[in-house]
Design a protein that fits this description.
The protein is an alpha+beta fold and about 140 residues long. It is about 30% helix and about 20% strand.
Length: about 140
């Protein structure tokens, strides 16, 4: 997990504990996909489609002062727009990758974890293509 810098006014012990449950649940979902690899990227846990593969999920533990603990997954701009408009309490447009259609799923307000798992699997399939898509379980 990313740790806040000293002097930011954030209690360092609390910050280290924030997101632990959400991270463990997200990690279990991601690592259940055959070929998924977890690495740190930009100070946050990030999942790739293989050792040299593409990113399919990024964890955000209040990175850059975000209001929520979230998971970023790839999508389309149309899907992103529809989800954020329909349920802004569950989804938002993440910085940097949002312009490419990525969707931030809010994890610290009790999400539907089955929905999160489905979006993670769809994200994996979208970035790795049909040849590496894992069989449905």
């Amino acid at each position: 997990m990313a740790k806040p810098k000293a002097g930011t006014g954030i209690n360092m012990r609390k910050a280290a504990a924030m997101g632990a449950t959400e991270l463990e649940r997200l990690r279990a979902i991601c690592m259940a996909i055959p070929g998924a690899v977890e690495k740190l990227s930009h100070g946050e846990p990030t999942w790739f489609t293989g050792p040299k593969g593409k990113v399919f999920v990024m964890f955000d533990n209040h990175h850059h002062g975000a209001a929520h603990i979230s998971a970023y997954v790839p999508g389309t701009l149309d899907l992103q727009e529809a989800l954020v408009a329909a349920e802004p309490e569950r989804y938002w447009v993440p910085p940097y990758v949002g312009a490419k259609g990525w969707i931030a799923i809010i994890l610290d307000t009790g999400p539907d974890w089955d929905m999160v798992a489905g979006m993670v699997r769809e994200g994996f399939a979208a970035v790795c293509g049909p040849k590496r898509t894992p069989a449905r379980r």
